[in-house]
């Protein structure tokens, strides 16, 4: 079964930092773009960031630009999301998802998903 696994979530105070990791079970990530999405209770799933298969192209939601950084280490078969200066509005379940080659505009375009990791930002 092709599956992604997220880790690194937790409880952090506003202004704090977390690093999320996304790893693969059953396939190699080096031909896949990896997107990070998040979903808070009562809200739609939104794209946070994405990185192309090679790492040459990245994108960020306006709400996180300048605070979050996406990166990948294909030798380790892992994608990271470094989250700095976290705000209460960042509280959500964070998912990683994979699609061949290039980033896509909608979560429905992604083929493989992880189970999510909870990020809570609270004083």
Describe, in plain words, how this protein is organized in 3D.
This protein is mostly beta strands. 0% of the residues lie in helices and 50% in strands. It contains no helices and eleven strands. The protein has strands at residues 3-7, 10-12, 18-25, 32-39, 46-51, 58-60, 68-73, 78-83, 92-100, 112-113, 117-121. The strands form two sheets. Strands 2, 4, 5, 6, 9, 10 and 11 form a seven-stranded mixed β-sheet that branches. Strands 1-3-8-7 form a four-stranded antiparallel β-sheet, with no helix packed on it. A hairpin with a 6-residue loop joins β5 (46-51) and β6 (58-60). The radius of gyration is 13 Å and the shape is globular.
Entry summary:
The protein has strands at 3-7, 10-12, 18-25, 32-39, 46-51, 58-60, 68-73, 78-83, 92-100, 112-113, 117-121. It has 123 residues and is mainly beta. The mean pLDDT is 96.
Q: What are the main properties of this structure?
A:
123 residues; mainly beta; 50% strand; globular
Q: How many β-strand stretches?
A: 11
Query: Can you give the helix content as a percent range?
Result: under 10%
Total helical segments: 0
H and E string: EEEEEEEEEEE
The largest sheet is: 7 strands, mixed
Overall spatial form: globular
Radius of gyration, in Å, reads 13 Å
Structural class from helices and strands? mainly beta
The proportion of residues in beta strands is over 45%
Span of the ends, CA to CA: 39 Å
Contiguous uncertain segments of 5+ residues? none
Average pLDDT = 96
